[in-house]
Amino acid sequence: MASVMDPCSFASLSKCTTKHLNLVFHVDFDRRVIKGKVSLTLEVLEDKLSCLTLDTKDLTITKVIANGQVASFSVGTKHSFNGTPLEIQLPLELFRGQHVIVEVTYETSPRASSLQWLTPEQTAGKKQPYLFSQCQATHCRSMIPCQDGPSVKHTYYAQVSVPKELVAVMGALHDGQEADPQDNSRTIYRFRQTVPIPSYLIALVVGAVESREIGPRSRVWSEKELVDQAAYEFAETETMLKTAENLVGPYVWGQYDILLLPPSFPYAGMENPCLTYTTPTLLVIAHEISHSWTGNLVTIKNWEHFWLNEGHTVYLERMIARCLESEQFRQFKAIGGWKEMQEAVNMFGETNPLTNLVPCLNEVDTDQAFSCIPYEKGFAFLYHLEELLGGPEVFMGFIKSYIQLFAYSSISTDEWKDHLYTYFKDKVEILNKVDWNGWMHTPGMPPVKNRYDTTLADVCITLCQRWVQANEADLASFNEADVKNLSSPQLIEFLALLLHEKPIPLSHVKRMQEVYNLNAIKNAEIRFRWLRVCLRAKWEEAVPLAFKMATEQGRLKFTRPLFRELHGFEKFRQETVSVFLKHRACMHPVAVALVSKDLNVDQPQSKAA
Ligand SMILES: CC/C=C\C/C=C\C[C@@H](O)/C=C/C=C/C=C\[C@@H](O)CCCC(=O)O
Ligand SMILES: [Zn+2]
C-alpha cells in the first residue's frame, strides 16, 4: 500500500524520517551490481514505533541491523513499477524524538532501473567500462533501500570502492580517496553531502573520467577525450552562477561541477547537487543551475507537485536568459515552450489527466507520466501571474521570498499558493479572479493564452507560412538567404512551427534540403525537428538518418518521438521494431521501458522479486 503522504512510495513517511545516510558501495563491473551497506539514521516521529517500511526495487537484502541488534525483515509484494516494500521489525520499541540507526546489507540487480552500465565500446575512450545513476523520480530505491520520496531530506556520507583504473564521482563534496585496504587493485573514494537532499538527488558516476577547472567553484568532468572541449563550452558557468545568485540569493552547495555524460543518458541534464549532469547534445546549463534553488533547496512534497520544481526552474532559467541576452529572447523562449506544451497535450490527448498541472499519480508510473507539461504549463502559469501582479521585477520579488521561506523543506502546491496570497496581500482581488482550477486541475492547454512578444519569432513565422502556402511553382523562390541570418534558436522555431502545420509535400522538403542543406546540421535540436519534417513528408532518404539519430544518442526527448515517427511510417514499421530490439541492450533501462511501450513490444524481464 503506497504511503498516504506519497502515492509513489511505500515507505512509512509518517512514522519516522531519514536524517542521514551512510553509504558503503562496492562497484562490481563484472557482475554489473553494487554490493551495498546503507546505515539510515532515522528520527522517530510517533510513539511506540516497532516496525517501519523502506522502498526497494530489485534489491537482494541479506541482513538488517537496528541499533546494533539483528532485526527481522520481510520483502513485500513486488509492484509493477514502484518496486517492493521492505518491512523491518525493530528489536526495540521507540518513542517520538528518539533516533535509530538501521543498517541494511544488500546487492543491486544488473537490471537496476537507476543504473546504466556501459561497455567500453559505448564510451568515448573505448577502453574502460562506465556506470552512471539516474534516480529521479523513483529509482533511487533500485540503488539504495531508503525512504524514496522527495518529502524526506537527509545528508549523506559515502565511500565507494571501484577498480583503481576508474574514478568515482558523486553529487556531493569530495572527501579524499585511498587504496582499498581489502584489495589493492581498487580505490575507495569518499564523499559528503552536508546539505539535506531528497533521495532522487543522489548521484553516482564511475568511469575513466577526469576534470578541468572552469571557475572558482566549478570543474567539468568527462572522459579525457571530451574534457578540453567541455571546459571551453562551459567557460561561462561562473557568470551564470553569479547571475542566478543576483536574482535569488546565495548558492549554498559549495561546489558546482558539471559532468558530461555519454550520449546514452536519457535526459538533457540532471540537477544533482554539486554535480550537474549534462549531455553532449545540450550545453546550456541555466536550467540545471536554477534547480540549485528551485527543486534542490525548495523541494516538493511528492511528485504530484513536480510543477513547483520545474515551472519555477524554467521561470528562473528564462530570467537568467533575460539578464544575459534580452527580454525579447525570454519572450522568444516562452513562445517555443508554449508550442512544446501544445505538442505534449496533443501526444497525451487534451482530456488526459496527465496534462493537469497537478496530476493525481495514484498507480501512475512517473516515467510514463513525464513530459514538458510541468515545465511549460508551469512556466506559462507563473508568467500569467507575473503579468497580473505587476511584471517581472515584482514577481521576482515573490520568487525570492518563496525560496527564502521554503528553503531546506518540501512543500505542496497549496503551501505555495498560501504564500502567494500572503506575499501579494494587497492584490487578493486580482488573485481571486485567477482560474485556479482551470490552470491546476484541468487537462489540456491552459485556460488563458499568454500573449508573448513575437519580435524574434516573426521572421520564423513568415518563413514557415511561405513554405506552407507555396505551390510547386513557388519553390524556385526559396534560397539559402532565407535562413542565412537566422540564429540556431530561430531555425529551431521555424522547424517547430512547420511541425505544427499539416505535413508539407515531399517536393517542398526536397527543395528545402536543396537550398538550406539541413541534413548537414549537427545541432541536435535542429536535426531532431528537421528529420521529423522529412518523415512526415514520407521522404524515405531520411529514414536511415532518423534511425541513426534515434540510436546514436539516448535523450528521450529525441529518441522516443523519432522511434514513434519511424514506427508510424508504415513501410518501415517492422524495420523500426527490429532496429530497436537490436539496439536496446545499449539503451538506458528507462528508455527501454518507454520505447518498448511506444512500439508495443515486450520488455526484457527484470530480476524476479
Ligand atoms: C507528473 C510527472 C511527475 C514526475 C515525473 C518526474 C520525473 C520523471 C522521470 O522520468 C525523470 C525525469 C528526469 C528529468 C531530467 C531532466 C529534465 O530537466 C529535462 C528532461 C527533458 C529533456 O531531456 O529536455
Ligand atoms: Zn528541471
UniProtKB/TrEMBL annotation:
Enzyme Commission no: 3.3.2.6
An example molecular function term from Gene Ontology annotations: epoxide hydrolase activity
Highest classification ranks of the organism: Eukaryota, Metazoa, Chordata, Craniata, Vertebrata
Domain Peptidase M1 leukotriene A4 hydrolase/aminopeptidase C-terminal, first and last residues per copy: 455-599
Annotated a peptide binding sites: 134-136, 266-271, 555-557
Cofactor note: Binds 1 zinc ion per subunit.
Reaction(s) catalysed (UniProt annotation): leukotriene A4 + H2O = leukotriene B4
Active site: 288, 375
UniProt protein name: Leukotriene A(4) hydrolase
Family classification: Belongs to the peptidase M1 family.
Cofactor(s) demanded: Zn(2+)
GO biological process, one term: leukotriene biosynthetic process
Subcellular location per the Swiss-Prot or TrEMBL entry: Cytoplasm
Keyword Nucleotide-binding: no
Protein origin, superkingdom: Eukaryota
Organism: Paramormyrops kingsleyae
GO cellular component entries: cytosol; nucleus
InterPro entries linked: Aminopeptidase_N-like_N, Aminopeptidase_N-like_N_sf, ARM-type_fold, LTA4H, LTA4H_cat, M1_LTA-4_hydro/amino_C_sf, M1_LTA4H, Peptidase_M1
Main location: cytoplasm
